[in-house]
Write a structure and sequence with these properties.
This protein has 329 residues and is of the alpha/beta class. The protein folds into 2 domains: 205 residues, L-asparaginase, N-terminal domain (Rossmann fold), CATH 3.40.50; 108 residues, Rossmann fold, CATH 3.40.50.40. It is 27% helix and 21% strand. It contains 9 helices and 14 strands. Helix 4 links the parallel strand 3 and strand 4. The chain is globular, with a radius of gyration of 20 Å. The relative contact order is 0.11. It binds aspartic acid. Aspartic acid binds next to loops. The site of aspartic acid (ASP) has 11 residues, from loops.
Amino acid sequence: MSKKDLQKVVILGTGGTIAGVGEPGMTTGYFSGGMDIEALITGVPGLKDLAWLIGEQIANVNSDDITQEDWLRLTRRINELAQRDDIAGFVITHGTDTLEETAFFLNLTVKTKKPVVITGAMRPATALSPDGPFNLYQAVALAASPKAVGKGVLAVFSDAIYSARDVQKGSTFHVDAFSSDDFGCLGYIRDTKPYFYNAPVKKHTIDSEFDLSDFTELPKVAISYFHVDADPETLRFQYMKSDGLIIAGAGNGEMSLKWEQEMRNFEQFGKPIVITSRIHDGIVTLHRPVPSNVLSGDTLNPQKARILLMLALTKTNDIQSIRDIFESY
Ligand code: ASP
């Protein structure tokens, strides 16, 4: 195929282990975000045969240092480029630590049906058998595929395609570090061919109501993590400092009587509290009577519930409306 027949895919680099540089062969002690996007692209044999590639550097950091400014820049850039008829899709290279958060944020804020695919790596580019080149190859193939249109933001890792809503990092070091637990992946990708078996049913991308065009800062939402002997004062501190709070409870969103009592004291302030679980799998059903400002995070993990609450608070402070949002996304 000549270059002019190829689809155009934009690769937005943000850093991470996929762009990591360290001691030759080693898989630890490296520097995340040491290679720029052009070096990443040229480092993958055959990548330029899959699509007409346009590289752009949005950031080049360890993904633990990704900020909401990076998120706003990313989503605006994708929304701007998605207007162009000559661009077929997008790939984002990202650190794996917070990949699921950026993926979910984009899933709720990009306004396009065009494929948006995020990927990363568990081994730095300088390791023995790094996984980044293979993941990037598959991500580009997916972003150029008509089969990925309209499926929301997708994550590609080790031959599997995941929905941004449900994908989670589940290992600190295994190469196959991602899964969607109970919900499973949406499909597989083998070489350049995607095979889909499932599709997301929750609202995303063009059906999402969140429009951040006029925002430079997002509402402040903290996460309080419950544990044995958790101090109610830390809960109070985080609630008072935030516009809304996520509680990562035990089991089905449970907590000690001390925490529960302190949480009940906050009803008078009205700011929302979303209860999630520190357990990976399952739904939080809240079948005990809860204060009027408390709602369930459904199946979202705490860090994803935080993103949805931040976005919900850009639209409304009404608790019932926020409840509806948590049921829809
Ligand atoms: N700390 C790295 C990051 O998230 C880990 C990785 O990319 O695998 O940027």
